[in-house]
Amino acid sequence: MAGxxxxxxxxxxxxxxxxxxALRAWASVAGxxxxxxxxxxxxxxxxxxxxxRRVLVIRRVLRRVVVVERRPTSTPVxxxxxxxxxxxxPVTSTRAS
Length: 97
Known about the structure:
Strand order of the largest sheet: 1-2
Radius of gyration: 41 Å
Low-confidence stretches: none
Largest sheet: 2 strands, antiparallel
Strand content: under 5%
Shape: flat
């Protein structure tokens, strides 16, 4: 009956396709298990004997000196008042010339 079909599909029948919600639920369960199983295996592993464990203390002092020179300040703003003869508002310039 390898190639036999019925009006509803193959001879063995077919399962309806799972919904997105069900697939996402199974994916989240698989993800949680993928995280918890190795964590549980590590937690259940035997600890080495006390004499086999060595405490290793690393002391290293790092000194870093950063020298920063001050940037020279820009030339001060010089205002030049130019008489315009009309007695209106003075014209000012911010360019140092």
